[in-house]
Amino acid sequence: MTSQPAQQIPGVYHRRIGDIVVTAISDGYLDGSIDVMRNVDLETAHRLLKQAFRPARRTNVNAFLIHSKGRIAIVDTGSGNYLLPTAGMVQRNLAAAGIDPKSIDTVLLTHMHPDHSAGLTDMSNGERLFPNAELVMHENEPKHWFDDGAMAKAEERAKKLYFQAGREQVEPYKDRTRLFTQGEVFPGVSAIPSVGHTPGHTAFLIASGNDQLMIWGDTVHVPEVQIAVPEAGMAFDTDLAAAAAARKRMFDRVSADGVLVAGMHLHFPSFARLARRGNAYELHPEPWVHALDAP
Prior knowledge:
It is a single chain. This protein has eight helices and 18 strands. It is an alpha+beta fold. The protein has one domain: Metallo-beta-lactamase, Chain A. It is globular, with a radius of gyration of 18 Å. The N and C termini lie far apart (42 Å).
């Protein structure tokens, strides 16, 4: 008698962008209440989730490898062991993808929140989990999260998970950190500041040949709600109004240009396109691409 499968296949998915290969790596997921949403009626949010056959808020957490010009970068590092046990799977899925973290020469951070930067360092021994990598992020991120005055104004949970966690995670990379404001940050990859969610929140545009991919970071956290109601934000947005404005700019840009998008909180593997329908938007997940050389 054969046994039934007991676990899912690894969260790894490859997508070619011209001469560049992007690999989505799942860090797992985080379940939580929609009470953290702002600027949206919660009954409306519940209705939108229900219409999408989602009984509650489940936030996927994704990272992305970029294979370009013989080099490898990773965009964000997952949540390490700072959050729920359903997340923190980046290292496990890198191994499943056959990637040695020592081969990754660049870590590109969208921002310093714990589900993005808390996989940088093993805090049991203080060792870098990407020992040969340069850490690259917007100059406003360390400026904000290392600001003692800003930390003093934060709630206790934010002090611990945003300020303190970010500081202890990036500290081992202090002698190999590069800051940017915008422009090319890795071969074929340009930083697109999209500030509001955090002071240095950044999207990354990958371009090769005629192909483009916008890794839009935390433009959305609850896609079923925020695609329909772009004004909807999160309690942990540093600046709700600026985050909403950045979201609308991003939506307008990628929908007008038909750019393929990926996001840290779109449902894995997250590759999709956004279409504008009058004053509203629709997200269309891309069908599974079966071969890397497929058109």
